[in-house]
Amino acid sequence: THTARGALTDTHTCCHPLHADVRIAPVGGNWQWSLTDYGRTCALGTFITGVSIRSGAWIDAVGPFNCGPTIAAQPAVGGTGGGGPFSDTSAAGYRAVRIEAGWSGFVDGIALTRASGATTSLYGGSYPSASKTLMLSCPNGSVVAGVYGKTTPQYPVTLGLICRDGERQRAPAGAPSMAVMGVLISGPSMDRHLGYECKIWGDVWGV
Length: 207
Description:
Layout: E1 2-7, E2 22-28, E3 36-41, E4 50-55, E5 59-66, E6 77-78, E7 83-89, E8 94-101, E9 107-114, E10 123-124, E11 132-137, E12 142-151, E13 158-165, E14 178-182, H1 190-193, E15 195-200
Antiparallel strand pairs: 1-15, 2-13, 3-12, 4-5, 4-7, 5-6, 8-9, 8-11, 9-10, 12-13, 14-15
C-alpha cells in the first residue's frame, strides 16, 4: 500500500488531480409559483448515458436518468403527465442540451446532443412567436453528469447542466485500484494550497 500527496497542479503523482464538476447555469421559463430546487447527479466516475422525457405541448418531466449500464437510475424531475415517455441512450454521454422556453412559463422543449455530435428530435414544443432557443454546452472533453434547477410538482421550470470530464472517468488499462482519502488544505490561501491524498494498492502509478 502506498500513500502519496500532491498539489492540484502536480501531474507526476500516484493518481489524477482532483477535477471539480462544472456547472452551467439553469435556463428556462419564468413560472414563479410552487417552485422547489432539484438536483440529479451521477456518482463519481460516471455520467448520464440515457434519459427519458415526458412531453405534450411542453415538457412534463425529464428523467429518470441512467448513469451507466449497472448504475441505479436517478429519479425524474417534474410530473407524471404528458406523452411518452420518450427515451434516448448514448454510451459515450451527452455534451449539450437545447432548451426552448418563453411560451408556457416552463421548459417548452428539449433536444439532446450526444457526445458523437448527433442530435435527438425536439421533445415538447417550439413556438416561434414566443419561445427562444437556448443552448447549454459542456466544455470540450466534458459530458453531462447531472442536471439542476427549479421545478413545480407538475413541470420542470429551469434546467442547468453539471458537466464532468469524460476522459477522467476512465482509468488506463491495467491501472491499480485507488481511492482518494481526503483533501489537504494548508496555509492562508486555500486556492494555492489545495491538494489531495491518495492511497493505491499495488505499484505506484504515475500519470
